[in-house]
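Entry 12.
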Amino acid sequence: MSAVLFTGFPGFLGSALLPRTLRRDPDARAVALVQQRWLGRAREALADLERDDPDIAGRTDLVVGDITTPGLGLDPAVTDRLLGEQLEIFHLAAVYDLSVAPEIAWRVNVDGTRHVVDLARRAADGHGLRRLQYVSTCYVSGRYDGLFFEDDLELGQPFANHYDHTKHEAERIVAKARDAGLPVTIYRPLVVGDSTTGRTQKFDGPYYVLQLLLRQGSTAFMPLPRGADRVAFNLVPSDFVVDGIAALAGHDAAVGRTVALAQPHPPTVTQMSEAFAAQGGKRLRVVPMPTPLAAFSIDHVPGVGRLFQVPSSTLEYLTHPTLYDTAATTALLAEVGVSCPSFADHVGPMVEFFRAHPEVGSAAMV
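Predicted 3D structure (tokens):
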């Protein structure tokens, strides 16, 4: 018998990966660590998963815990059970919301990851750690100006916000444990909606650009920073991310690797805006505007923030200077039959889901 610990359930990745992991290993039992306030939602999500896939029914235990607490806030009996079996850990929990206070992001992203790694080390010293599957982000690159490779991490890059910075610091903890011999795979995704249905749990990032375009008439004016036609914007469908992680989690060649789940051929910011406008039946008119001026106007000029409905903190991604090399990742994914759809292939469902589901907000689980 083996155990699989999930943090971040019932979030999007946890809900998608838990059943696929149990199907991969019929002898495994899952333990989903859930904050007390999300326990009701977790029970509902698990019931839905078990109804859709009866073969996994009864194989998941929901346990209350908190990754920001040493020992993950787990009951000692639960910890003993996890450490008494071969253990695989999916560490998915993180704060992804730029509006969250920096101290919360540091406590969840950095301290939480340190506590998960501590448990992984204890498992490795005992009955054995099968692997720590850690979900990071491509934005550990900060605002590195140039080509960022899968094995790059500390290149002296500056950070424009606490999300990028805390995820970088968290990945440093995981990478250090990996280099000391812990079996680890690091995944760096960038996620938008499903490539077929467009479904997503929240509208943020590029969706702010989309909503601004779609709220206008037949001609849509889009303020973009100068050079937007040279800045790449990564839009990676969620099903590709799930397929990639699910396949590589059981692939021995992925142990010790960092996987950049980014778009091999990303559109520029201008091309992304043009595609959104075309899918929405709009004629695009780009208005060049320096990013600092746009951010100042949103934050300080009365009525501008309400008009744009775009957080100023997201504007920096429209001038993001980093390109992500995915050559090694693409080759590794080819071994398990997974490839990333092009933006042109999934922009249609992305726009249609956005138009059809105004009830979906931009808030993350914290």
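Annotation: The two ends are 32 Å apart (CA to CA). The domain at 2-192+235-261 is CATH 3.40.50.720 (Rossmann fold).
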